[in-house]
Amino acid sequence: MKSNEPEQADFVLLGSYPPREAGKLLERFHKAGIAFRTQPRSPPPEPRPTVVIDISVDSMRATEVAQIHRDLFGDGLPNYHSSFFPEHRNV
Length: 91
Description:
Layout (H helix, E strand, L loop, with lengths): L10 E7 L1 H14 L3 E6 L10 E7 L3 H12 L18
Helix pairs in contact: 1-2
């Protein structure tokens, strides 16, 4: 799935989300005109949902994306499958 993305947009992985959370994010990104890409995948064998959705967003809209993420999910740590929040990576 792709939004109406600009041709030259650089995309950065925001994270991997269960379908319900992904839907909330994508709805808000669409309303804000933020380009995104999605890729459904099966997570590693863990006690998690059976499918997660990787969401990548236009890197030029990082401030807006971060605000939408905070509005929806609070200031908690982002998921660790994300390159969007490098300061919180578990390296």
